[in-house]
Amino acid sequence: MKTICVTGAGAGIGRATLMHFHGAGWRVVGLDKDAEALAELRSALPRDTALLLTCDVGKEGDVTRSFARIEDWLDGAALDCLVNNAGVADPYCGPLEDLALSDWQAWIDASLTAAFLCSRAAVPLLRCAETGASIVNISSTRAVMSEPECFAYASAKGGLDALTHAMAVSLGPEVRVNAIRPGWIETGPWQKTGERREANHREKDCDQHPAGRVGTPQDIAEAIEYLHGAGFVTGQHINVDGGMTRKMIYED
């Protein structure tokens, strides 16, 4: 039985990915700093095939402790896939001249530093896999295109893109490393109970996507599954955005 570790597993893309792979017969490890969200998942998943740990993946001590627990739980088995999904969901930070260094650092730590810390901790366990170990970093289309006042978020995701190809050339061939750049993904139905909301998209929201709709977390989970199985794909950054970044959109 293969094992996947997903950071930011409590909600959104992380939650959908955890449930998708568990449904496909994998053992799953979920890390998140939201204990309430993890408790919901813990009640829904059997303990022999799911390990859910409260962890702030931007903090070295938390990551070290969590991966020690993961290694014990694996009991000699390998970790097959790490998904570095954690990050600050809201990309908007306000005017550049008002952006505090501490706030900037929070965005960087949540995505980029967290991916470094978790990848560093996971590599020895990934190298135990007989074949096909991989890391998938969840970047963003904002790594390559911007909206106003997203400086820290865009920088964190751009750094994650660079970390992806740097790790790919250094960790291969034992471990392949790729990134997914989600576009507009509707995560409302994949929140914990108190924050769950149904999608309500306007026709023009769907029309700006050549695929004809806004994305879902399941779209990203399926892309992760593809990248894990694609043995000749590494160091790549794949847009999963319904074609939105290929369509010129003019203001009305």
UniProtKB/TrEMBL annotation:
Organism: Qipengyuania profundimaris
Protein name: SDR family oxidoreductase
Pfam family, one: adh_short_C2
Regions of compositional bias (Basic and acidic residues) in chain numbering: 193-210
Family matches, as InterPro entries: NAD(P)-bd_dom_sf (IPR036291), Sc_DH/Rdtase_CS (IPR020904), SDR_fam (IPR002347)
Region (Disordered) residue spans: 193-213
Matching SUPFAM superfamilies: NAD(P)-binding Rossmann-fold domains
Sequence similarity: Belongs to the short-chain dehydrogenases/reductases (SDR) family.
Record keywords: Oxidoreductase
